[in-house]
Fold each of these.
Amino acid sequence: MSSAPRATEWPRAATVSSYFVLYWAYLWLHPESELLHWASLVVLPTLGLFLMERAVESPPTVRAVTRRLGLRWPEANRGIVLMLALIALVQLIQLLNASLRADVFRVLASPAAVWMVPSALLLMVVTAGFTEEYFFRGILQRSLSGRFGSDVLGVLMTTLAFSVYHIPYAYLNPNWPSHGDLGQAVGLAFLNGTLGGVILGVLFVRCGSSLLPCILLHAAVNWMPAIRMMERLQFGA
């Protein structure tokens, strides 16, 4: 459990939550690319928190703000075994998909595997793995947990936001199977967002509010689909 909330957590949590609501509304008008996520989920929120903390406390550095948000390795390697177990479980579950398995194995059997496999992982680390975890776990969950003095409420409320966040993509993105079907988009967004949000949220708490294990796990979830995407671009499948 988190400690009792400080007075400064009220404006921080309110500001971050309001930013998310406005950002979500914007996504319906302009679904973002992964590159733009760096501006909307990383740069702008960090700048906002920097300015807010500068107004109420001694002037912090950007490095101090980002470190406080979790960009550090967990002390005493807390939660690392859990992270490794979850990564292995994700890979096994994804390999049960025959189509995905065939695409991945085709890459592994080709000379392109030498560069394609690590490139796919690196791509997922620096895109969705980093940007989404930085905002949802590092900023939003930390702010909500601090505001309510409860890690449980922080995880649950962030999971709700993480699920809602995916609805515009599930509805507007033609690459999603729910494209154009709002009911299916909501269901798919909540199915993926709830499962992922709870697991990543608990891992964040278990790792002492370190983001790095969450980034690696999030990247691992997207790793095989990224290999498939790169394989199809490479071979025109």
Note: The chain has a mean pLDDT of 90.
Amino acid sequence: MRFRLLWVGRPKSEPHEAALCKKYESRIARMVKFEETALKPLAQQPSDCDREGERILQKVSDGEYLVVLDERGREMSSRQWADWLVTKQEESRDVTFVIGGAYGVSHAIRERANDMISLTRMTLPHGLARLLLVEQIYRGLCITVNHPYHHE
């Protein structure tokens, strides 16, 4: 079982975000398998979104639980998120989170997705969404093991 992040963006464009992501990713990796893959943006206009979607779907196997991060997805509290992570670990399925490009994700990705989750109803830059996601994965895992990182 592993958690994986596929995102469209340039990881080195914001060095401070990248450094913080690495910090949380290394903490996550002590608790579960975690991988991250950045895909170079292709979309220059909304119609290019399908090409990005094809590239993303090529990297997702049939058995993976695919989660699209989207402001229209369902929101969860930190405790609900932790419970969700535990459920996915108990199911022993690989979970892949997708953060789309500048024009979001394609219809094909939405059709393939098993779940759609929102970090916030606001639109975020991709690097910031990536940072929020890895911090929330770490926080959720800490909640599950009663680590003092999360205070209630």
Note: The chain has one domain: 2-144.
Amino acid sequence: MQISQGTKLIKNRFFILILTQLILYISALYLIYCKLIIVATIFFTILFILGLFTIISFQKTIKKLQEENELIKKEKHDIEVKLEGQILDVTASNNELKILNLELIKAKNKVEELSHYRGTFISNMSHELKTPLNAIIGFTHVLLESEFIISEDEKINLIKTVHNAGKKLLNIINNILDLSDLKQDIDIYEPVPRYIDITPIIDALVSTAKGLLKDKSSILLNTKIGENYPNVYADDKALGKVLTHIIDNASKYTKKGEILIYTEEDEDHLYICISDTGVGMTDSELERIFEPFTKMIINGQPISISGSVGIGMPISKYLMEKMSGNLLVQSKKDYGTTVKIALKKEPKDG
């Protein structure tokens, strides 16, 4: 717009100056014709000066227009650069939104899957609870009612049945209570790690293993435990909970063979290792071992509530991370599982 106005201005000025010079030139010729030479000379002088002024004015106007043109080009360039920057920002924001949207979809799917597992578990709970309760009520009724005439051996068998049903019911209730452990451990109990002596905790682990395996003659317990260990960064209560869960799993899922408790060290960490020759896990099971309730569904079917509900490993993982440690699991289906609890060692100069 500015250039168009400048061009129009030049045309107007140039037209006026040319018209003026033309009039002066004609007037000078007429004066010469009238033999008024002096006056004609004055007119030609004015005509010359006016011509110089026209040229100078034209050059100045052209220069000004060029400067304005350069300024417009610079402003246009700045606007284009700014616009490109805004486009890049918008593109980056759009990409971030796409990534966040994908993560949100994954999280939503994960929550829906977990909700499905919970629902399946709870719907299966009623049947699982009723079975041992009905057995207890029914058989105790037989024992209490005088019209039922039963022998001493039958009475003992009924009492054993009631006892076993009670144990099964207790196991079910314990697993139901475990459902609150994940929230309880996260929201209520927070580990308070410090550098502690690990020896008593390892001794307690071995004692627990012996107690779990005392009635399982088909499983051999082996230990490779040292005498002197460096202090490790841990909370004794939280670490005890983790180790108890791991050794309980090893005992529960090993029918025969060996459970080995041993330790390893590197420059920065002490590893407490529990290895078994149990059922092991497939690669897909191993990938999901730290997801709550993953063991509630097997081949699309709900498992028994009287078994493990599959929240111990997520809890253990959480507790280890709170103690700046880690939980490492290696497993092979039908060959067994090895769990390594990694604990940070106290610096030698500390």
Note: Residues 2-88 form one domain.
